[in-house]
Amino acid sequence: MAETSLLEAGASAASTAAALENLQVEASCSVCLEYLKEPVIIECGHNFCKACITRWWEDLERDFPCPVCRKTSRYRSLRPNRQLGSMVEIAKQLQAVKRKIRDESLCSEHHEALSLFCYEEQEAVCLICAISHTHRAHTVVPLDDATQEYKEKLQKCLEPLEQKLQEITCCKASEEKKPGELKVEQAACCFHCLAGYLPVSESSILYLICWFVITHYI
């Protein structure tokens, strides 16, 4: 079955892309322009790969300048930034998910853009698929139209979902709910709710959840 991501259409996709791009910028070293490796923070507050800033200051004995703001410090002050290191790992994973979704946006049979949606098969199809024997008698609409419809269904679904998540979060230890179990139940609640309203692949749902994490918790 052909798969696609309805999340790449409309305003929600723009927000997702912007959030991911911002995260990638924060997770990149301004010296090597790659993802940060062993990120360290210097006196002015900017972050760099430990190896990059060490090489940048290699021939200096005093007045160590920041490669970004040029502010100098008297000492080689390098403090590990473990929280940023975790962000780098998240950015890498999201980039991999985004790449996978982009690859899924082409018809696996005809290698054409998946620009239409078949209601009977509940899948995105290309123009060639739409006029084929398989889908000829089916109801096929532009993917943007289907996106809007399912977006509205998702909005209606989110209100009870948020209430349910609040109830789960408020569970106490006396109810024999461990933190790990709460997270599993929350994730399952999110997944089943979204899966019931969006005709997309699991990776697309993961992308939506990742977007929610970025925009609400980072």
Automatic annotation (TrEMBL):
It is found in: Cytoplasm. It comes from Phodopus roborovskii. GO terms for molecular function: zinc ion binding. Its main location: cytoplasm. The gene is Trim39. This is Trim39 protein. GO terms for cellular component: cytoplasm; nucleus. Residues 29-70 form the RING-type domain. CDD domains: Bbox2_TRIM39-like, RING-HC_TRIM7-like_C-IV. InterPro entries: TRIM/RBCC, Znf_B-box, Znf_RING, Znf_RING/FYVE/PHD, Znf_RING_CS. Residues 102-143 form the B box-type domain. The keyword Zinc applies. SMART domains: BBOX, RING. It comes from the Eukaryota. The keyword Cytoplasm applies. Keywords: Coiled coil, Cytoplasm, Metal-binding, Zinc, Zinc-finger. Belongs to the TRIM/RBCC family.
